[in-house]
Amino acid sequence: MMRETAADAIADGAAAPQLPGGVGGGRRPGDDGGRANPGYGRATPFWFLAPAVLVLLAIGIYPTIFAVVTSFRRYNITRPREGFGFVGLENYIGVLGDQTFWATLGLTARFFLTVIPFQLGFGIAIALLLHRPGWGLLRSLARVSLVVPLATTYAVVGLIGRLVFNRDFGVANQFLNAVGIGGFDWLGSPSGAFAAIAIMDIWQWTPFCALIFLAGLSMVPVEIEEAARLETPSKLALLRHVQLPYLLPGLTAVLILRSADVLKLFDMVFVMTRGGPGAATDLVSVYIQRVGFRVFDMGTASAQALLLLVMTIILSRLYIKLLYREIE
Amino acid sequence: MHSPPARALHGLGLTLVIGFALFPFYWMVSSSLKDQTDLLASPPVWIFRPTLAHYAEIFADQKVLDAIINSLIVATSTTALAVGLGAPAAYALARFEFRGKSDLWFWFISNRMISPIVLALPVYLLALQVNLLDTHLVLILIYLTFNLPIVVWICTDQFRSIPKELEQAARLDGARQFMIFRKIYVPLGLPGIAVSAIFSFIFSWNELLYALVLTRRSVQTAPVVATSFMSGYELPWGKIMATGTVIVLPVTIFALLVSRHMVRGLTMGATK
User: Fold this and answer.
1) Does A164 sit within 8 Å of B21, measured CB to CB?
2) For the residues B26-31, what does the mean pLDDT come to?
3) How far apart are CA A51 and CA A48, in angstroms?
Protein backbone atom coordinates (compact mmCIF):
# COMPACT_ATOMS: atom_id res chain seq x y z
CA MET A 1 0.00 0.00 0.00
CA MET A 2 2.67 2.39 1.11
CA ARG A 3 4.67 1.35 -1.86
CA GLU A 4 1.93 2.15 -4.33
CA THR A 5 1.28 5.62 -3.06
CA ALA A 6 4.93 6.49 -2.94
CA ALA A 7 5.48 5.05 -6.38
CA ASP A 8 2.54 6.98 -7.77
CA ALA A 9 3.82 10.13 -6.27
CA ILE A 10 7.16 9.85 -7.96
CA ALA A 11 6.07 8.22 -11.19
CA ASP A 12 3.48 10.71 -12.41
CA GLY A 13 5.94 13.53 -12.35
CA ALA A 14 6.85 13.26 -16.00
CA ALA A 15 6.47 17.01 -16.26
CA ALA A 16 8.88 17.70 -13.42
CA PRO A 17 11.71 20.07 -14.31
CA GLN A 18 14.44 18.51 -16.35
CA LEU A 19 17.11 17.90 -13.86
CA PRO A 20 20.71 17.92 -13.16
CA GLY A 21 21.07 16.67 -16.51
CA GLY A 22 21.71 20.19 -15.97
CA VAL A 23 25.00 19.62 -14.48
CA GLY A 24 26.29 17.35 -17.15
CA GLY A 25 24.88 17.88 -20.57
CA GLY A 26 21.53 19.57 -20.39
CA ARG A 27 18.87 18.39 -22.80
CA ARG A 28 20.00 16.97 -26.06
CA PRO A 29 18.08 17.57 -29.29
CA GLY A 30 16.96 13.96 -29.53
CA ASP A 31 15.26 13.92 -26.12
CA ASP A 32 11.56 13.32 -26.20
CA GLY A 33 10.44 16.18 -24.03
CA GLY A 34 11.58 15.11 -20.59
CA ARG A 35 10.25 11.59 -20.65
CA ALA A 36 13.71 10.16 -20.97
CA ASN A 37 12.84 6.55 -20.66
CA PRO A 38 9.41 5.61 -21.92
CA GLY A 39 8.15 2.14 -21.38
CA TYR A 40 9.22 1.55 -17.80
CA GLY A 41 6.86 0.57 -15.03
CA ARG A 42 5.66 3.36 -12.81
CA ALA A 43 7.33 1.96 -9.73
CA THR A 44 10.67 1.24 -11.36
CA PRO A 45 12.63 4.35 -10.37
CA PHE A 46 11.32 3.95 -6.85
CA TRP A 47 12.98 0.55 -6.47
CA PHE A 48 16.31 1.83 -7.69
CA LEU A 49 16.22 4.84 -5.40
CA ALA A 50 14.64 3.42 -2.29
CA PRO A 51 17.70 1.75 -0.71
CA ALA A 52 19.91 4.82 -0.99
CA VAL A 53 17.18 7.21 0.14
CA LEU A 54 16.11 5.05 3.07
CA VAL A 55 19.69 4.71 4.29
CA LEU A 56 20.31 8.44 4.02
CA LEU A 57 17.06 9.13 5.85
CA ALA A 58 18.07 6.77 8.63
CA ILE A 59 21.62 8.02 9.07
CA GLY A 60 21.23 11.66 8.02
CA ILE A 61 17.73 12.91 8.72
CA TYR A 62 16.86 10.84 11.78
CA PRO A 63 19.93 12.01 13.76
CA THR A 64 19.22 15.59 12.67
CA ILE A 65 15.70 15.32 14.08
CA PHE A 66 17.17 13.81 17.22
CA ALA A 67 19.54 16.80 17.44
CA VAL A 68 16.59 19.17 17.13
CA VAL A 69 14.86 17.40 20.02
CA THR A 70 18.09 17.41 22.06
CA SER A 71 18.52 21.11 21.45
CA PHE A 72 15.31 21.76 23.39
CA ARG A 73 16.47 19.72 26.37
CA ARG A 74 18.82 20.08 29.24
CA TYR A 75 21.18 17.32 28.18
CA ASN A 76 24.45 17.24 30.05
CA ILE A 77 25.50 13.60 30.11
CA THR A 78 27.98 14.15 32.93
CA ARG A 79 25.09 15.25 35.15
CA PRO A 80 22.40 12.62 34.65
CA ARG A 81 20.85 13.43 38.04
CA GLU A 82 19.53 16.70 36.69
CA GLY A 83 17.55 14.67 34.17
CA PHE A 84 17.13 15.40 30.49
CA GLY A 85 14.03 17.54 30.78
CA PHE A 86 12.70 19.86 28.11
CA VAL A 87 13.70 23.46 28.66
CA GLY A 88 12.07 25.10 25.65
CA LEU A 89 14.24 27.67 23.96
CA GLU A 90 16.66 27.99 26.86
CA ASN A 91 19.60 26.47 24.96
CA TYR A 92 19.04 28.72 21.96
CA ILE A 93 18.73 31.80 24.14
CA GLY A 94 21.90 30.74 25.89
CA VAL A 95 23.73 30.27 22.58
CA LEU A 96 22.53 33.54 21.10
CA GLY A 97 23.75 35.34 24.21
CA ASP A 98 27.00 33.34 24.35
CA GLN A 99 29.80 35.70 23.45
CA THR A 100 32.24 32.83 22.97
CA PHE A 101 30.03 31.30 20.28
CA TRP A 102 29.86 34.59 18.38
CA ALA A 103 33.57 35.11 18.87
CA THR A 104 34.29 31.70 17.31
CA LEU A 105 32.02 32.54 14.37
CA GLY A 106 33.77 35.88 13.99
CA LEU A 107 37.12 34.16 14.10
CA THR A 108 35.93 31.67 11.48
CA ALA A 109 34.93 34.59 9.24
CA ARG A 110 38.31 36.22 9.84
CA PHE A 111 40.03 32.97 8.96
CA PHE A 112 38.07 32.75 5.72
CA LEU A 113 38.92 36.37 4.84
CA THR A 114 42.58 35.70 5.60
CA VAL A 115 43.04 32.58 3.50
CA ILE A 116 40.75 33.26 0.57
CA PRO A 117 42.71 36.17 -1.05
CA PHE A 118 45.85 34.01 -1.08
CA GLN A 119 44.02 30.98 -2.39
CA LEU A 120 42.36 33.00 -5.16
CA GLY A 121 45.49 34.95 -6.06
CA PHE A 122 47.87 31.99 -6.04
CA GLY A 123 45.16 29.87 -7.61
CA ILE A 124 44.77 32.15 -10.62
CA ALA A 125 48.53 32.62 -10.96
CA ILE A 126 49.13 28.85 -10.90
CA ALA A 127 46.27 28.25 -13.34
CA LEU A 128 47.76 30.78 -15.78
CA LEU A 129 51.19 29.17 -15.47
CA LEU A 130 49.69 25.76 -16.17
CA HIS A 131 47.58 27.03 -19.04
CA ARG A 132 50.43 28.72 -20.87
CA PRO A 133 51.95 26.63 -23.69
CA GLY A 134 55.53 25.38 -23.36
CA TRP A 135 57.42 23.26 -20.82
CA GLY A 136 55.14 20.29 -21.51
CA LEU A 137 56.63 17.79 -19.09
CA LEU A 138 57.22 20.27 -16.28
CA ARG A 139 53.66 21.48 -16.69
CA SER A 140 52.21 17.98 -16.38
CA LEU A 141 54.38 17.37 -13.34
CA ALA A 142 53.16 20.58 -11.70
CA ARG A 143 49.57 19.66 -12.45
CA VAL A 144 49.91 16.23 -10.94
CA SER A 145 51.76 17.53 -7.88
CA LEU A 146 48.79 19.78 -7.10
CA VAL A 147 46.77 16.69 -6.29
CA VAL A 148 49.06 15.78 -3.38
CA PRO A 149 47.91 18.52 -0.94
CA LEU A 150 44.27 17.79 -1.75
CA ALA A 151 44.62 14.12 -0.90
CA THR A 152 46.67 14.55 2.27
CA THR A 153 44.76 13.41 5.34
CA TYR A 154 43.66 16.60 7.13
CA ALA A 155 44.82 15.29 10.48
CA VAL A 156 48.26 14.57 9.03
CA VAL A 157 48.37 18.12 7.65
CA GLY A 158 47.99 19.18 11.27
CA LEU A 159 50.81 16.86 12.37
CA ILE A 160 53.10 18.24 9.66
CA GLY A 161 52.15 21.74 10.78
CA ARG A 162 53.15 20.96 14.35
CA LEU A 163 56.61 19.92 13.14
CA VAL A 164 57.14 22.64 10.52
CA PHE A 165 56.12 25.44 12.90
CA ASN A 166 57.98 24.12 15.93
CA ARG A 167 59.75 26.95 17.71
CA ASP A 168 63.07 25.19 18.20
CA PHE A 169 63.57 22.84 15.28
CA GLY A 170 60.82 23.83 12.83
CA VAL A 171 61.75 24.51 9.24
CA ALA A 172 59.51 27.61 9.10
CA ASN A 173 61.84 29.45 11.45
CA GLN A 174 64.81 28.27 9.41
CA PHE A 175 63.28 29.96 6.35
CA LEU A 176 62.65 33.12 8.37
CA ASN A 177 66.24 33.12 9.64
CA ALA A 178 67.47 32.75 6.07
CA VAL A 179 65.78 36.04 5.15
CA GLY A 180 67.04 37.69 8.34
CA ILE A 181 63.99 37.48 10.58
CA GLY A 182 64.53 35.98 14.01
CA GLY A 183 62.89 32.84 15.35
CA PHE A 184 59.23 33.01 16.11
CA ASP A 185 57.11 31.05 18.57
CA TRP A 186 54.45 30.16 16.00
CA LEU A 187 52.22 27.80 17.94
CA GLY A 188 52.85 29.45 21.31
CA SER A 189 51.59 32.89 20.38
CA PRO A 190 48.02 33.82 19.36
CA SER A 191 48.86 35.57 16.10
CA GLY A 192 51.54 32.99 15.25
CA ALA A 193 49.13 30.07 15.73
CA PHE A 194 46.48 31.78 13.64
CA ALA A 195 49.03 32.42 10.89
CA ALA A 196 50.27 28.82 11.08
CA ILE A 197 46.83 27.23 10.58
CA ALA A 198 46.12 29.78 7.82
CA ILE A 199 49.34 28.83 6.03
CA MET A 200 48.55 25.12 6.23
CA ASP A 201 45.05 25.78 4.89
CA ILE A 202 46.44 27.91 2.08
CA TRP A 203 48.84 25.10 1.21
CA GLN A 204 46.14 22.47 1.18
CA TRP A 205 43.42 24.34 -0.70
CA THR A 206 45.24 26.61 -3.16
CA PRO A 207 45.58 23.64 -5.54
CA PHE A 208 41.81 23.22 -5.44
CA CYS A 209 41.35 26.82 -6.62
CA ALA A 210 44.12 26.45 -9.19
CA LEU A 211 42.57 23.32 -10.71
CA ILE A 212 39.12 24.92 -10.86
CA PHE A 213 40.49 28.04 -12.56
CA LEU A 214 42.55 25.90 -14.92
CA ALA A 215 39.38 24.09 -15.93
CA GLY A 216 37.78 27.50 -16.55
CA LEU A 217 40.71 28.69 -18.66
CA SER A 218 40.58 25.60 -20.82
CA MET A 219 36.92 26.35 -21.61
CA VAL A 220 37.93 29.49 -23.54
CA PRO A 221 37.55 28.59 -27.23
CA VAL A 222 41.00 28.32 -28.80
CA GLU A 223 40.16 30.58 -31.78
CA ILE A 224 38.98 33.39 -29.54
CA GLU A 225 42.06 33.18 -27.35
CA GLU A 226 44.39 33.12 -30.38
CA ALA A 227 42.61 36.05 -32.00
CA ALA A 228 42.80 38.06 -28.79
CA ARG A 229 46.51 37.30 -28.44
CA LEU A 230 47.07 38.76 -31.90
CA GLU A 231 44.96 41.83 -31.07
CA THR A 232 46.68 42.78 -27.88
CA PRO A 233 50.10 42.08 -26.42
CA SER A 234 48.75 42.79 -22.94
CA LYS A 235 48.31 39.67 -20.81
CA LEU A 236 46.15 41.66 -18.42
CA ALA A 237 43.72 42.73 -21.12
CA LEU A 238 43.51 39.14 -22.28
CA LEU A 239 42.76 37.98 -18.75
CA ARG A 240 40.18 40.66 -18.12
CA HIS A 241 38.24 40.66 -21.36
CA VAL A 242 38.60 37.13 -22.67
CA GLN A 243 39.40 34.75 -19.85
CA LEU A 244 37.62 36.31 -16.88
CA PRO A 245 34.09 35.42 -17.99
CA TYR A 246 35.13 31.78 -18.06
CA LEU A 247 36.64 32.03 -14.60
CA LEU A 248 33.54 33.44 -12.91
CA PRO A 249 31.53 30.22 -12.40
CA GLY A 250 34.63 28.64 -10.86
CA LEU A 251 35.08 31.69 -8.64
CA THR A 252 31.53 31.38 -7.34
CA ALA A 253 32.04 27.69 -6.66
CA VAL A 254 35.30 28.36 -4.81
CA LEU A 255 33.82 31.10 -2.64
CA ILE A 256 30.81 29.06 -1.54
CA LEU A 257 32.57 25.73 -1.11
CA ARG A 258 35.46 27.27 0.76
CA SER A 259 33.14 29.09 3.16
CA ALA A 260 31.30 25.82 3.81
CA ASP A 261 34.66 24.08 4.27
CA VAL A 262 35.88 26.70 6.75
CA LEU A 263 32.65 26.34 8.73
CA LYS A 264 33.37 22.63 9.04
CA LEU A 265 37.14 22.91 9.42
CA PHE A 266 38.09 20.76 12.37
CA ASP A 267 40.69 18.03 11.83
CA MET A 268 43.74 20.11 10.96
CA VAL A 269 43.11 22.80 13.58
CA PHE A 270 42.28 20.30 16.30
CA VAL A 271 45.56 18.46 15.72
CA MET A 272 47.68 21.59 15.41
CA THR A 273 46.38 23.85 18.16
CA ARG A 274 43.16 22.46 19.74
CA GLY A 275 41.81 25.98 19.33
CA GLY A 276 44.58 27.59 21.36
CA PRO A 277 46.63 29.26 22.60
CA GLY A 278 43.75 30.86 24.49
CA ALA A 279 41.01 31.16 21.89
CA ALA A 280 43.32 32.28 19.08
CA THR A 281 42.37 29.46 16.70
CA ASP A 282 39.02 28.47 18.18
CA LEU A 283 37.06 28.06 14.96
CA VAL A 284 33.36 27.32 15.26
CA SER A 285 33.49 23.55 14.63
CA VAL A 286 36.37 23.14 17.08
CA TYR A 287 34.40 25.06 19.71
CA ILE A 288 31.18 23.06 19.25
CA GLN A 289 33.14 19.82 19.44
CA ARG A 290 34.56 20.97 22.77
CA VAL A 291 31.18 21.98 24.19
CA GLY A 292 29.74 18.62 23.13
CA PHE A 293 32.57 16.24 23.89
CA ARG A 294 34.64 17.92 26.60
CA VAL A 295 31.95 19.74 28.56
CA PHE A 296 29.35 17.14 27.45
CA ASP A 297 26.66 19.82 27.32
CA MET A 298 24.84 18.13 24.45
CA GLY A 299 21.80 20.41 24.57
CA THR A 300 23.82 23.57 24.03
CA ALA A 301 26.13 21.92 21.51
CA SER A 302 23.13 20.66 19.51
CA ALA A 303 21.62 24.13 19.42
CA GLN A 304 24.96 25.51 18.20
CA ALA A 305 25.34 22.77 15.62
CA LEU A 306 21.83 23.39 14.29
CA LEU A 307 22.54 27.11 13.88
CA LEU A 308 25.62 26.04 11.94
CA LEU A 309 23.45 23.71 9.87
CA VAL A 310 21.10 26.57 8.99
CA MET A 311 24.05 28.61 7.72
CA THR A 312 25.24 25.64 5.70
CA ILE A 313 21.83 25.10 4.14
CA ILE A 314 21.71 28.76 3.09
CA LEU A 315 25.15 28.35 1.53
CA SER A 316 24.21 25.20 -0.31
CA ARG A 317 20.95 26.69 -1.65
CA LEU A 318 23.02 29.60 -2.90
CA TYR A 319 25.48 27.19 -4.48
CA ILE A 320 22.74 25.30 -6.28
CA LYS A 321 21.00 28.46 -7.39
CA LEU A 322 24.12 30.06 -8.79
CA LEU A 323 25.83 27.04 -10.28
CA TYR A 324 23.25 24.57 -11.45
CA ARG A 325 21.43 27.02 -13.68
CA GLU A 326 19.73 24.56 -15.97
CA ILE A 327 17.52 23.50 -13.11
CA GLU A 328 15.71 26.81 -12.77
CA MET B 1 56.87 32.73 -29.99
CA HIS B 2 57.89 33.44 -26.39
CA SER B 3 61.02 35.36 -25.61
CA PRO B 4 63.73 33.36 -23.82
CA PRO B 5 63.44 35.33 -20.53
CA ALA B 6 59.68 34.82 -20.49
CA ARG B 7 60.18 31.12 -21.10
CA ALA B 8 62.73 30.90 -18.30
CA LEU B 9 60.33 32.69 -15.92
CA HIS B 10 57.56 30.30 -16.88
CA GLY B 11 59.82 27.34 -16.12
CA LEU B 12 60.86 28.88 -12.82
CA GLY B 13 57.23 29.52 -11.91
CA LEU B 14 56.29 25.91 -12.63
CA THR B 15 59.21 24.68 -10.54
CA LEU B 16 58.05 26.87 -7.66
CA VAL B 17 54.55 25.44 -7.98
CA ILE B 18 55.94 21.90 -7.69
CA GLY B 19 58.06 22.90 -4.70
CA PHE B 20 55.11 24.59 -3.00
CA ALA B 21 52.78 21.64 -3.57
CA LEU B 22 55.22 18.93 -2.51
CA PHE B 23 57.26 20.57 0.26
CA PRO B 24 55.18 19.58 3.32
CA PHE B 25 54.87 16.06 1.94
CA TYR B 26 58.61 15.92 1.33
CA TRP B 27 59.28 17.26 4.81
CA MET B 28 57.09 14.60 6.38
CA VAL B 29 58.77 11.77 4.48
CA SER B 30 62.29 13.04 5.07
CA SER B 31 61.58 13.59 8.78
CA SER B 32 60.32 10.04 9.05
CA LEU B 33 63.76 8.90 7.86
CA LYS B 34 65.77 10.96 10.37
CA ASP B 35 67.02 9.63 13.67
CA GLN B 36 66.03 11.47 16.85
CA THR B 37 69.22 13.60 16.95
CA ASP B 38 68.69 14.85 13.40
CA LEU B 39 65.01 15.43 14.09
CA LEU B 40 65.74 17.70 17.04
CA ALA B 41 68.63 19.51 15.35
CA SER B 42 68.24 23.27 15.41
CA PRO B 43 68.28 24.58 12.76
CA PRO B 44 66.86 21.52 10.97
CA VAL B 45 69.22 19.48 8.81
CA TRP B 46 68.53 18.83 5.15
CA ILE B 47 71.25 16.28 4.51
CA PHE B 48 71.38 13.33 6.87
CA ARG B 49 71.92 9.60 7.01
CA PRO B 50 68.46 8.05 6.45
CA THR B 51 67.20 5.33 8.77
CA LEU B 52 64.20 3.04 8.57
CA ALA B 53 64.14 2.61 12.34
CA HIS B 54 60.86 4.49 12.79
CA TYR B 55 59.13 2.30 10.22
CA ALA B 56 60.41 -0.81 11.97
CA GLU B 57 59.05 0.66 15.18
CA ILE B 58 55.54 1.39 13.90
CA PHE B 59 55.20 -1.93 12.09
CA ALA B 60 56.10 -3.65 15.34
CA ASP B 61 53.49 -1.59 17.19
CA GLN B 62 50.24 -3.55 17.44
CA LYS B 63 48.29 -0.35 18.01
CA VAL B 64 49.37 1.12 14.67
CA LEU B 65 48.76 -2.15 12.82
CA ASP B 66 45.28 -2.49 14.35
CA ALA B 67 44.50 1.10 13.45
CA ILE B 68 45.48 0.56 9.83
CA ILE B 69 43.38 -2.61 9.68
CA ASN B 70 40.45 -0.72 11.25
CA SER B 71 40.81 2.04 8.69
CA LEU B 72 40.92 -0.52 5.90
CA ILE B 73 37.82 -2.34 7.16
CA VAL B 74 35.85 0.88 7.59
CA ALA B 75 36.90 2.54 4.34
CA THR B 76 36.42 -0.59 2.23
CA SER B 77 33.03 -1.50 3.71
CA THR B 78 31.62 2.00 3.49
CA THR B 79 32.85 2.31 -0.08
CA ALA B 80 31.27 -1.01 -1.06
CA LEU B 81 27.99 0.02 0.55
CA ALA B 82 28.07 3.46 -1.03
CA VAL B 83 28.58 1.97 -4.48
CA GLY B 84 26.01 -0.77 -3.94
CA LEU B 85 23.35 1.72 -2.83
CA GLY B 86 24.47 4.71 -4.87
CA ALA B 87 24.90 3.22 -8.34
CA PRO B 88 21.26 2.06 -8.70
CA ALA B 89 20.08 5.43 -7.39
CA ALA B 90 22.33 7.14 -9.91
CA TYR B 91 20.79 5.03 -12.66
CA ALA B 92 17.32 6.18 -11.65
CA LEU B 93 18.43 9.81 -11.56
CA ALA B 94 20.16 9.50 -14.94
CA ARG B 95 17.40 7.76 -16.84
CA PHE B 96 14.01 8.36 -15.24
CA GLU B 97 11.81 11.36 -14.72
CA PHE B 98 9.76 11.58 -11.55
CA ARG B 99 8.37 14.14 -9.17
CA GLY B 100 10.73 15.28 -6.45
CA LYS B 101 13.80 14.48 -8.52
CA SER B 102 15.33 17.93 -8.17
CA ASP B 103 14.67 18.04 -4.43
CA LEU B 104 16.34 14.69 -4.07
CA TRP B 105 19.24 15.97 -6.05
CA PHE B 106 19.62 19.11 -3.91
CA TRP B 107 19.50 17.01 -0.79
CA PHE B 108 22.36 14.83 -2.05
CA ILE B 109 24.42 17.92 -2.81
CA SER B 110 23.72 19.63 0.52
CA ASN B 111 25.21 16.65 2.30
CA ARG B 112 28.58 17.62 0.84
CA MET B 113 28.62 20.85 2.85
CA ILE B 114 27.29 19.87 6.26
CA SER B 115 29.78 20.03 9.09
CA PRO B 116 30.37 16.59 10.59
CA ILE B 117 29.87 18.08 14.05
CA VAL B 118 26.15 18.51 13.25
CA LEU B 119 25.69 14.75 12.97
CA ALA B 120 28.45 13.72 15.36
CA LEU B 121 26.48 14.92 18.41
CA PRO B 122 23.18 13.08 17.82
CA VAL B 123 24.89 10.00 16.37
CA TYR B 124 27.07 9.78 19.47
CA LEU B 125 23.99 9.88 21.73
CA LEU B 126 22.07 7.39 19.59
CA ALA B 127 25.03 5.02 19.36
CA LEU B 128 25.47 5.29 23.11
CA GLN B 129 21.88 4.16 23.64
CA VAL B 130 22.09 1.13 21.36
CA ASN B 131 25.66 0.16 22.30
CA LEU B 132 27.13 0.91 18.89
CA LEU B 133 29.92 3.18 20.11
CA ASP B 134 33.37 1.89 19.29
CA THR B 135 32.19 -0.46 16.52
CA HIS B 136 33.14 -0.55 12.87
CA LEU B 137 29.46 -0.45 11.97
CA VAL B 138 28.76 3.02 13.31
CA LEU B 139 31.65 4.52 11.32
CA ILE B 140 30.73 2.58 8.18
CA LEU B 141 27.18 3.92 8.37
CA ILE B 142 27.99 7.52 9.27
CA TYR B 143 30.57 7.76 6.48
CA LEU B 144 27.79 7.00 4.03
CA THR B 145 26.41 10.49 4.66
CA PHE B 146 29.25 11.96 2.63
CA ASN B 147 30.15 8.98 0.41
CA LEU B 148 26.74 8.20 -0.96
CA PRO B 149 26.18 11.68 -2.44
CA ILE B 150 29.56 11.58 -4.15
CA VAL B 151 28.94 8.13 -5.64
CA VAL B 152 25.48 9.17 -6.78
CA TRP B 153 26.76 12.31 -8.40
CA ILE B 154 29.68 10.83 -10.30
CA CYS B 155 27.73 7.75 -11.41
CA THR B 156 24.73 9.79 -12.58
CA ASP B 157 27.02 11.78 -14.81
CA GLN B 158 28.64 8.62 -16.14
CA PHE B 159 25.37 6.74 -16.76
CA ARG B 160 23.94 9.70 -18.62
CA SER B 161 26.71 9.40 -21.18
CA ILE B 162 25.71 5.83 -22.09
CA PRO B 163 23.62 5.75 -25.31
CA LYS B 164 19.94 5.22 -24.65
CA GLU B 165 19.61 3.10 -27.78
CA LEU B 166 21.37 0.23 -26.01
CA GLU B 167 18.75 0.24 -23.31
CA GLN B 168 15.88 0.48 -25.79
CA ALA B 169 17.23 -2.43 -27.81
CA ALA B 170 17.55 -4.52 -24.67
CA ARG B 171 14.00 -3.70 -23.67
CA LEU B 172 12.70 -4.78 -27.06
CA ASP B 173 14.42 -8.07 -26.38
CA GLY B 174 12.34 -8.31 -23.25
CA ALA B 175 15.05 -7.57 -20.68
CA ARG B 176 13.82 -6.48 -17.27
CA GLN B 177 14.87 -3.15 -15.85
CA PHE B 178 17.26 -4.53 -13.30
CA MET B 179 18.88 -6.73 -15.95
CA ILE B 180 19.36 -3.67 -18.14
CA PHE B 181 21.06 -1.91 -15.25
CA ARG B 182 23.27 -4.88 -14.45
CA LYS B 183 24.19 -5.98 -17.96
CA ILE B 184 24.48 -2.58 -19.66
CA TYR B 185 24.96 0.25 -17.18
CA VAL B 186 27.27 -1.40 -14.66
CA PRO B 187 29.82 -2.71 -17.19
CA LEU B 188 29.72 0.39 -19.42
CA GLY B 189 29.72 2.78 -16.48
CA LEU B 190 32.55 1.00 -14.72
CA PRO B 191 35.10 3.82 -15.14
CA GLY B 192 32.77 6.26 -13.36
CA ILE B 193 31.91 3.72 -10.69
CA ALA B 194 35.63 3.14 -10.06
CA VAL B 195 36.35 6.87 -9.79
CA SER B 196 33.51 7.34 -7.32
CA ALA B 197 34.70 4.35 -5.29
CA ILE B 198 38.20 5.82 -5.09
CA PHE B 199 36.85 9.17 -3.89
CA SER B 200 34.70 7.44 -1.34
CA PHE B 201 37.70 5.49 -0.08
CA ILE B 202 39.92 8.60 0.14
CA PHE B 203 37.35 10.63 2.10
CA SER B 204 36.64 7.78 4.51
CA TRP B 205 40.30 7.00 5.03
CA ASN B 206 41.07 10.66 5.79
CA GLU B 207 38.20 11.33 8.20
CA LEU B 208 39.04 12.30 11.79
CA LEU B 209 36.15 13.97 13.64
CA TYR B 210 33.64 11.10 13.56
CA ALA B 211 36.37 8.57 14.23
CA LEU B 212 37.57 10.62 17.18
CA VAL B 213 34.22 10.90 18.94
CA LEU B 214 32.61 7.58 17.99
CA THR B 215 35.47 5.21 18.81
CA ARG B 216 37.34 4.37 21.99
CA ARG B 217 39.96 1.64 22.21
CA SER B 218 39.10 -1.17 19.88
CA VAL B 219 38.14 0.55 16.62
CA GLN B 220 40.47 3.56 16.51
CA THR B 221 41.33 4.42 12.91
CA ALA B 222 44.76 5.38 11.63
CA PRO B 223 44.32 9.20 11.81
CA VAL B 224 43.09 8.90 15.41
CA VAL B 225 46.11 6.83 16.44
CA ALA B 226 48.54 9.12 14.63
CA THR B 227 47.00 12.05 16.50
CA SER B 228 47.19 10.21 19.81
CA PHE B 229 51.01 10.20 19.66
CA MET B 230 50.91 13.96 20.13
CA SER B 231 51.05 13.93 23.89
CA GLY B 232 53.75 14.00 26.50
CA TYR B 233 56.76 16.23 26.77
CA GLU B 234 59.20 14.85 24.22
CA LEU B 235 57.18 13.91 21.16
CA PRO B 236 58.25 10.86 19.11
CA TRP B 237 58.50 12.89 15.91
CA GLY B 238 60.04 10.11 13.84
CA LYS B 239 57.26 7.72 14.77
CA ILE B 240 54.60 10.36 14.15
CA MET B 241 55.94 11.25 10.72
CA ALA B 242 56.41 7.59 9.75
CA THR B 243 52.79 6.89 10.71
CA GLY B 244 51.72 9.98 8.78
CA THR B 245 53.58 8.76 5.71
CA VAL B 246 52.02 5.32 5.93
CA ILE B 247 48.56 6.91 6.18
CA VAL B 248 49.02 9.43 3.39
CA LEU B 249 50.92 7.36 0.84
CA PRO B 250 48.15 4.96 -0.25
CA VAL B 251 45.53 7.69 -0.65
CA THR B 252 47.98 9.89 -2.53
CA ILE B 253 48.49 7.09 -5.03
CA PHE B 254 44.73 6.67 -5.35
CA ALA B 255 44.31 10.40 -5.80
CA LEU B 256 46.91 10.47 -8.56
CA LEU B 257 44.89 7.76 -10.34
CA VAL B 258 41.81 9.98 -10.34
CA SER B 259 43.61 13.31 -10.63
CA ARG B 260 41.72 14.19 -13.80
CA HIS B 261 38.45 13.95 -11.89
CA MET B 262 39.66 15.64 -8.72
CA VAL B 263 37.90 18.95 -9.33
CA ARG B 264 34.61 17.36 -10.31
CA GLY B 265 34.73 15.16 -7.24
CA LEU B 266 35.35 18.06 -4.91
CA THR B 267 32.78 20.43 -6.41
CA MET B 268 30.05 17.84 -6.99
CA GLY B 269 30.41 18.61 -10.66
CA ALA B 270 29.40 22.25 -10.52
CA THR B 271 32.44 23.07 -12.62
CA LYS B 272 33.79 20.91 -15.37
Assistant:
1) no
2) 95
3) 7
Residues of chain B with Cβ-Cβ distance to A60 below 8 Å are: 111, 119, 145
Q: Which residues contact A256 (CB under 8 A, 6 or more apart)?
A: A315, A316, A318, A319, A322, A323
Q: Which band of pLDDT confidence, cut at 50, 70 and 90, is reported for residue A28?
A: very low
Our CA angle for B161, B111, A100, nearest 5°, is 150
Number of domains in chain A: 2
Does residue A37 sit at the B interface (CB-CB below 8 Å)?
yes
**CB contact, 8 Å: A64 with chain B?**
yes
- Residue A270 and residue A207 share a domain: yes
pLDDT(A159) > 90 = yes
Q: Which domain holds residue A57?
A: 2-72
Percentage helix, strand, coil for chain A under 3-state DSSP, each rounded to 5: 70, 0, 30
pTM of the model: 0.86
B58-267 adopts what CATH topology? MetI-like fold (1.10.3720)
Please tell me which of the candidates B43, B160, B209 has its beta carbon nearest to residue A266: B209
Say if residue A106 is in the same domain as residue A58: no
pLDDT given for residue A6 in this prediction = 38
Based on the number of CB atoms within 10 Å of its own CB, is A144 exposed (0-12), middle (13-18) or buried (19 or more)?
middle
Residues 161-180 on A with a CB inside 8 Å of B are 162-164, 168-171, 173-174, 177
In this prediction, residue A17 has a pLDDT band, given cuts at 50, 70 and 90, of very low
Interface confidence (ipTM) of the complex: 0.90
The answer to whether B9 faces chain A, any CB pair under 8 Å, is no
Same domain, A183 and A255: yes
B262–A150: do the CB atoms touch at under 8 Å?
yes
Domain-by-domain residue ranges, chain B? Answer: 58-267
**Pair A124, A64 in one domain:** no
Contact B262 A211 (CB under 8 A): yes
Q: Are residues A172 and A289 in the same domain?
A: yes
